[in-house]
Write a structure and sequence with these properties.
Blueprint: E1 2-6, H1 9-23, E2 25-27, E3 34-36, E4 41-45, H2 62-73, H3 80-85, H4 103-108, H5 115-125, E5 132-135, H6 139-142, E6 153-160, E7 166-172, E8 175-176, H7 177-200, E9 204-211, E10 214-217, H8 220-228
Parallel strand pairs: 1-4, 7-9, 8-10
Antiparallel strand pairs: 2-3, 3-10, 4-9, 5-6, 6-7
Helix pairs in contact: 1-7, 2-7, 5-7
Amino acid sequence: MQVYNVRNAHEALTILLSAIDREGIKRQSRNGPVLMFPTPVTICYEQPRERVVFWPERDANPFFHFFEALHMLAGHDDVEFPAYFNKQISEYSDDGVRFHAAYGHRWRRAFSFDQLNEIILRLRQDNNCRRQVLQMWHAGWDLGRNGKDLPCNLTATFQVNVDGCLDMVVFNRSNDMIWGAVGANVCHFSTLQEYVAAAVAVPVGRYWQVSANMHVYLNAVYDRCRMLAGAAPDPWR
């Protein structure tokens, strides 16, 4: 297990690009060749609300990430709304209408009750509670399923730390570093963390992303980003 303590998404991408260049192992995947870390990877974000990477080479769309996060918090699974901001996202749906693995739908509706409301209620009642686990993977729906759309993030835990801030740990089975971990995931889950913290009336703490398989696809975006690693100033500082 490798652990990287970083300030924000910008620093995470800079450090991880250098690390995977040194340590990465080439493997094949269903979407083409990847460079993969040899062990699981944990990123600890000290300032998770500094969630956007502004590199032109990365070409992130912060508006898409913001509205997709709101779509999740609302508990929806339709393709139409996020596709308004990014048409390519419809390619990740099996039927072009809904997402099988929509995180927000699983947070709030799919398991017959609203997990977020329950977590918030319990943490309001007891800030020392360590039982608040948000479930995204469903063995009956997902294990052995063939399709484009399966949850990569499996569970998240929420605890109020000794300083009175809300910490969150997210567990992930397989994570593309550029588009997933330090792209969409940090935006969506830090927004989730901020939402829960506000509802519990405590400050945002740290966010850990634990990835069993952290990799990058060997493509033009990776080539552009790795050329910039270590050279681009952090706009959050």
